[in-house]
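re: ur msg from earlier - yeah i can do the magnesium ion complex, just paste it... oh wait u already did. ok heres what im feeding in:
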Amino acid sequence: MVNGHETVVAVDGLEKDYGSVKALGGVSLSVARGEIFGLLGQNGAGKTTLVKILLGMVLPTGGSAHLLGRPVGSVAARRLVGYLPEDHRLPEYHTAPSLLDVYGGLQGLSRSDRRQRTGELLATLGLAGRERLRIRGYSKGMKQRLGLAQALLHRPGVLFLDEPTDGVDPVGRRQIRELLLAERDRGVTIFINSHLLGEVEQLCDRVAIMRKGKMVLAGTVPELVGSKPSWLVGFARPPADRRFPGFRLDPAERPGFFRLSAGDLPGGDPEELLDRFLAASAAAGLALRHLERERGSLEEIYLEIAHSRGPTA
Ligand SMILES: Nc1ncnc2c1ncn2[C@@H]1O[C@H](COP(=O)(O)OP(=O)(O)OP(=O)(O)O)[C@@H](O)[C@H]1O
Ligand SMILES: [Mg+2]
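and the outut:
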């Protein structure tokens, strides 16, 4: 169980050596039903290796991995999963409907179910209207969308997505994000490898960061990111004197906005500073239009880890 929910992915002390390369050096993690789990890490950190072991495509050198209590690689475990590989290749002579028909057949879906699912998925993924086009004529983002349709076709309970929005435009990314959130709300467990930190931050319930085959950090996004002792402030009309009314306001990166920071103030209690600031700006007749506690970003944490020495593989 993870936080009272059924454990779907359970990995314990997983190791994988490729000759002298230790791709995984003792990784443990668990993912609960209905969770979107994001796995981050630099090129070569071991993310794809971990997913391939969970899919039974690569044998571990040590440790254990289970999907819904079944050893990975077993037929029962494989039936449960949908997979979007990184750099996937779809047979070019197919159209989307003919490809999904073949894959659906292999997965045991009835003909009417195949047809219905294909219609649904092509519409949701923004591929409707291109049913007669062969995959050879697809753009990169279209291939990616169809790869996702293929992964979702048989309504798997667990989805493994390696760089799901690679090459997809912003509209498509949003469609994919909404689709994945809807799947999650139906109880599907989703495991994502990605380099798009903003996207991971928006989408994932929990995140783990790998480095050189080891897990270095895991938690919910708010746990990892946390609040900072500063606020982003916007006024109806900016104050003429930025020291006014006795607080330091620095211009923020966002044009027209200021940063109120508790960091360099004596006493330093951020909440108290904010109360004083609100009272003072009201007394000075400054109309606030925006006030937001600043948060760290996943990118900041990620870069800190990437630049630290961390565990050596
Ligand atoms: N089949 C293989 N044979 C030899 N070495 C491999 C093999 N697959 C992976 N490796 C090595 O294992 C390590 C982890 O690779 P992996 O593909 O898991 O990284 P990754 O985190 O997915 O990286 P990326 O972000 O670039 O996709 C790398 O050093 C890689 O060279
Ligand atoms: Mg990879």
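cool cool. The longest strand covers residues 7-18. ping me if u need the other ligands too
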